[in-house]
Fold:
Amino acid sequence: MKHKEYDIAILGAGFSGLVAAGILKKYDLDVLLVEESGLPGGQYLRTHPLGRRGEESLNVLQRTGLKQIQRLEGGRVRLMTETRVLGIDDNKELLLEQNLEDLFTLRPEIVLLATGARERFVPFKGWTLPGVISTGALQIMLKGSGVFPAEEVVIGGSGLFLYTVAADVIRYGGRVRVVFDENSAMQKMGFATGLMWQREKLKEGLGQVFKVLFSRTKMRHRHRVIEACGDKQIEAVRVAKIDPEGNLVPGSESEYPCACLAIGNGFAANIELGLLAGCKPAYDVDLGGWVITTGENLETNVAGIFAAGETTGIGGAEKSIVEGKLAAYSILHKLEKIDEDQYREHILPLQKERKRYQQFACRFNALSDVSEPAMESIPDDTILCRCEDITVGEVKKAVDRGCKTLVAVKRALRTGMGICQGRTCGPVLSRLIGNYTGTPVEEQTPLSVRWPVKAVPLEVLAKPISRLHP
Structure:
């Protein structure tokens, strides 16, 4: 007798995954919710422990996320934390690894990709020095562990997340020496005026900016970090002014003492599992780069595989919540748990709301988009692939030798073959090859993906594999 498989596997327990699971649990379905970290809630909730100041210190979205977690209790939803998806095929067969101890396989009827996003970086000289970290890593250290990497930090890059992190440092009693923002003040003001319809978001953003303004933090607009200086660790940061087109202004360089530099240039969607399953990708600057494409019901080109949240485009927690709801009702309709009239009643307002958040996403991602002059100004001796120590100049030489695609450069130089599997260097490598060859990124093919998607010790892969059932 064949044991029952899970009806639905949701890959990622961020906002979209949590919201979808909360809706699906009401319809007598066996749902598996897989989360790579130790707690559900994604980056937004993972770094907001209640023990520090209580629930009253959380904003509306954080409270919403906590309620979604609480609603999972008592249903037929199984949450597996510290669990990584190592592979998926076009038949929806999954390979899971939990806590580096157990391996499981399963084949659910439906898969929802809710794999979120990661930070994006533009390389510069010295960015591999100890003391140079991502803005997200700084935030996790603060909120997850209450740890300051230095008495005073410098924050640089582009996008609104810089001010979120700066406000968090100040809120937790730290000091931000200066924020170097590649955008102008007018660009941020223009963005803010477009949020009048989203008052809660506008209030949160203005609160963060005002917190930074009223602290002793200096704000330097149209400044780009060009070098992290130091011998064994960062000791200073060199910056330069940039003009409205993104070109470095000659003779504008200056240097600031620095013990910790937190850097970030927006976000990139995690599409690797979608690619492995045969889902169609697309490059869309307005959505943050490479994304998994879907229909209006959020089903991909692979029957039975849906995608929601940042996987379909960088757009924030509100977009993820709406898409989690939309995906859940689309899945219920596909499984014939709700009829056509019920389906349309739910999805029509959600699709309208989703379009509004996609418009927000366009403006949000425009503030962190990397300009062509920024790419062209990266010195050839700058390391591009940290895992394999491959420089920008080596990539250009490989292109000159005929390696004009991501795959060809990967085979020639091993870019994207290290422990991060191209998650860090991939977005920049696409732009670099595109600029150097004149081939637009949207006409390229993303880096190939193979099992296992995440680095895992061979001794773990050698363990017996169990079939996972409800």
Remarks:
- The mean pLDDT is 91.
